[in-house]
Each structure stands twice: as structure tokens, then as C-alpha cells.
């Protein structure tokens, strides 16, 4: 039976990097069928909303979704609920992709591309498991209270249910079992009720379902500090939506560039995953052919592995990216001068 990969290139550098991932997919999995739709600002321009019902239905009925990036200065004035980023949040929620895997892996060829010293990042291999469909990103009530002068305010609710914490912690435990078997769970239990509840819940789940896994709790701020001090101590980092977002951008820089970091957002078995680079639409370099397509290409790698049941193709692709980097392939963010297409060419040549 044929498999369909839905491409949602989005805004800014999104289409540029997604195009390279598509070229790689055509070489590596020629039988794969592609569908394409709009998300983010491009969808606002075409349909007046950042994600149409039709696009969400397509996403849910595909085998996997590969998204580029959303957002950009053109749409910053748009009403909050219609912003490009809302399209992405609606897609994550609609697909119920609650477990966001963000691997921070330092390719040997890039040990000197990081802003940190070689010995700090050499051999780095961290998996961040970020809860993606709840927490402060979605908690109600939220909103603004304006027109009361100095007392005007904006607010949202940081809220996690036991079920939401259990299901993502379970994924972190499972992933750790296939690695070093260590999970560091992060929150701010010292100041937040939702953080305290997170810690208690993860601890309880570990007692019943954590066999083979060593669990440690680290406050999210200390975790950020440890990520730049001694990142190789980490195997799997489990975090809620907001802290996972922030920690993964920090982890990205350990790998050399945010242009290297892919992600997989997974739901329950049998449901399609959503794959996207961790970076955004990079308005400062959009349209110039400068973007590093590796995060998009490695997101395809994760799709082949986690949704499309093609681990051999995924292994080949991972090796090809490493080989291209070994041969000196570099976009500007990695200190080189290759264009987005040339970087795609280099990976295809290595394949
Ligand atoms: P960004 O990730 O777009 O850019 C941060 C910096 O990294 C910029 O200097 C950019 O040029 C550079 N960069 C990012 N990706 C790169 C790549 N592939 N190759 C080379 N350099 C790269 O973050 P930002 O500037 O804070 O956000 C821009 C927009 O993107 C905002 O609207 C934001 O909401 C959105 N955003 C979207 C996603 C997503 O779609 N998943 C993720 C993050 C941010
Ligand atoms: C990410 C991005 C998104 C997030 C935005 C664009 C909604 O920063 O995927 O890391 O905050 O989750
Ligand atoms: Mn982010």
C-alpha cells in the first residue's frame, strides 16, 4: 500500500528547506506519494486563517506530515487567534501529537562549529522529550484585561493533568530504554503548582512503569545552566511545553546551529506524526537561498523512522548527512558558503 507524506512548507525559509527534504525523499523513497497544503502566513493570505479544516483533515489522513516553518513580520499585526503560529498549534493539537522528540546530536564534523568548546560537545547525543499539546501554551483561562490603566494585564494558565503527564513521561521512559536509560525531568516545582504536580506524577509513574530507567529531577533553570556547562551528562530530558521549547533552542546551539535540529511530534501508535525543524521561518535570511536544509532533511529522517516504518532508509539518510558534513559541506550558519540547494545536492550525492 502506498504511503503519503503531506508537505506543509509554510513561510519564510520553510519552502526552501522543505524542497530539499522532498528532493532527498524522491531519491530515498521513490514510491512515496506527496501531497501539499498551506499552513501559517501563506494560509492566512490564501484563506484568511492559518490552518484550514481541509488541511487538518489531510494531515490526519496522511502517513506523516513534514512541515517547514511558520511566521514572519508580515503577519505580526494579525489578531492573535489568527496568527501563523496558531496554525501550528492547531495542527499539533488536532493531530494530538503530544510527544515532541527533539534530538540534539553533534555530528563529528561539527564539533568546532558550536560556540562551546570541542570537549564539551564532542559525542553529544541528547533526546529532549517535550510535551506538545498542553501546558501554558493551551491552558484556559487566558487572555487580556485592558483599559484599566496600570492594572491592565495579560495572562494564561499553566495546567497539566495526570493523564497528560503520564502519556509523555511514558514515551520518555520508553525512549530512554533504547538509549543510556537515564531521564532527567525538568519543571519549576519550587515555584509552580503545575511543576510540583508534574514532579509528583512523573515520580509515581516511574515507581510503577519505570523499570530499567534512572530518573532524576532538575529544576528547569538549573537544567538550562547544566546544558551549557556539561551537556553530555544528559541522555533524555523530559519537559513540559514551554520549558521544552526553550531548552531545545539552547540544545540546538550545542550541535553547531539551529539549522541542524529536527523534530518528531508523535501521537499514539498508528496515528501520523508531524515532523518539523526546530528552527523558525528565519525572516532575516528568507528568500536568499542561504538556509541550512539539514534540520528539514533530518526531520524527514525521523519521519522515515517513526511513522513510515523505513528504518533502513532513515539509517542511510543519517549516514549521508554525516558523510556530506565530513566532506566539508556547510551552509553559512555552519561557517561555510553553500546555498540551500547545494547543501541538498551534497546530501543527495552522499546518498
Ligand atoms: P528562527 O529560528 O526563525 O531564527 C533564529 C536565527 O536562526 C535567525 O538568525 C535565523 O537566520 C537563524 N536560522 C534559523 N533557521 C536557520 C537555518 N535553517 N539555516 C540557517 N540559519 C537559520 O527564530 P525567530 O527569528 O525567533 O523566529 C522567526 C519566526 O519563526 C517567528 O514568527 C516565530 O514565531 C517563528 N517560529 C516558527 C517555528 C516553527 O514553525 N516551528 C519555530 C520557531 C519560530
Ligand atoms: C517551536 C516554535 C513554536 C513553539 C512556535 C512557533 C509556536 O518556537 O516549535 O519551537 O513555541 O512551539
Ligand atoms: Mn521554539
Can you describe this structure?
The chain is of the alpha/beta class. It has two domains: 1-98 and 267-351, Isopropylmalate Dehydrogenase, CATH 3.40.718; 101-262, Isopropylmalate Dehydrogenase (3-Layer(aba) Sandwich). The chain has twelve helices and twelve strands. The strands form two sheets. It has a ten-stranded mixed sheet with strand order 2-1-3-12-11-4-5-10-8-9, with helices on both faces. Strands 6-7 form a two-stranded antiparallel ribbon. It is globular. It binds nicotinamide-adenine-dinucleotide (NAD), 3-isopropylmalic acid (IPM) and manganese (II) ion. Residues 245, 249 line the site of manganese (II) ion.
Q: Please, what is the average pLDDT?
A: 97
The CATH architecture assignment of the largest domain turns out to be 3-Layer(aba) Sandwich
Q: Characterize the largest beta sheet: strand count, sense, and whether it forms a barrel.
A: 10 strands, mixed
Please, how many helices? 12
Associated small molecules:
nicotinamide-adenine-dinucleotide, 3-isopropylmalic acid, manganese (II) ion
Q: How many structural units, i.e. domains?
A: 2
Spatial separation of the terminal alpha carbons: 25 Å
Structural class: alpha/beta
The Cα radius of gyration reads 20 Å
Number-wise, the strands total 12
Look up the CATH topology of the largest domain: Isopropylmalate Dehydrogenase
Succession of helices and strands: EHEHHEHEHEEEHEHEHEHEEHHH
Helix content: 40-55%
Strand content: 15-25%
Main CATH class of the largest domain = Alpha Beta
What is the name of the CATH superfamily of the largest domain? Isopropylmalate Dehydrogenase
Poorly predicted parts: none
Amino acid at each position: 500500500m502506498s504511503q503519503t507524506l503531506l508537505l506543509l512548507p509554510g513561510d519564510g525559509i520553510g519552502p526552501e528547506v522543505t524542497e530539499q527534504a522532498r528532493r532527498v525523499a524522491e531519491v530515498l523513497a521513490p514510491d512515496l506519494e506527496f501531497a501539499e497544503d498551506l499552513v501559517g502566513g501563506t494560509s492566512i493570505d490564501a484563506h484568511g486563517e492559518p490552518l484550514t479544516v481541509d488541511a487538518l483533515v489531510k494531515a490526519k489522513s496522511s502517513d506523516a506530515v513534514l512541515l517547514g516553518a511558520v511566521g514572519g513580520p508580515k503577519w505580526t499585526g494579525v489578531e492573535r487567534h489568527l496568527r501563523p503560529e496558531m496554525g501550528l498549534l492547531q495542527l499539533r493539537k488536532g493531530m494530538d501529537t503530544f510527544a515532541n522528540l527533539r534530538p540534539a546530536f553533534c555530528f563529528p564534523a561539527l564539533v568546532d562549529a558550536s560556540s562551546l568548546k570541542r570537549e564539551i560537545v564532542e559525542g553529544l547525543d541528547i533526546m529532549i522529550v517535550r510535551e506538545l499539546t498542553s501546558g501554558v501554551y493551551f491552558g484556559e483561562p487566558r487572555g487580556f484585561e485592558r483599559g484599566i490603566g496600570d492594572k491592565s494585564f495579560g495572562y494564561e494558565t499553566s495546567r497539566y493533568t495526570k493523564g497528560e503527564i503520564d502519556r509523555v513521561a511514558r514515551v520518555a521512559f520508553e525512549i530512554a530504554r533504547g538509549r543510556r536509560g537515564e531521564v532527567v525531568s525538568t519543571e519549576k516545582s519550587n515555584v509552580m503548582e503545575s511543576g510540583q504536580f508534574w514532579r509528583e506524577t512523573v515520580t509515581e509513574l516511574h515507581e510503577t512503569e519505570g523499570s530499567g530507567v534512572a530518573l532524576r529531577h532538575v529544576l528547569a533553570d538549573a537544567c538550562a545552566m547544566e546544558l551549557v556547562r556539561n551537556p553530555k551528562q544528559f541522555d533524555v530530558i523530559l519537559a513540559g511545553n514551554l520549558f521544552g521549547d526553550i531548552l531545545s533552542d539552547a540544545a540546538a546551539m550545542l550541535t553547531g546551529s539551529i539549522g541542524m535540529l529536527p523534530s518528531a511530534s508523535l501521537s499514539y501508535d498508528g496515528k501520523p506524526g508531524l515532523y518539523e525543524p526546530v528552527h523558525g521561518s528565519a525572516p532575516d535570511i528568507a528568500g536568499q537561498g542561504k538556509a541550512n536544509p539539514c534540520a528539514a532533511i533530518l526531520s524527514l529522517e525521523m519521519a522515515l523512522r517513526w511513522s513510515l516504518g523505513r528504518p533502513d532508509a532513515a539509517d542511510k539518510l543519517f549516514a549521508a548527512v554525516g558523510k556530506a558534513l565530513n566532506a566539508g559541506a556547510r551552509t553559512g550558519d555552519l561557517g561555510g558558503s553553500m546555498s540551500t540547494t547545494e547543501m541538498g545536492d551534497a546530501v543527495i550525492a552522499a546518498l
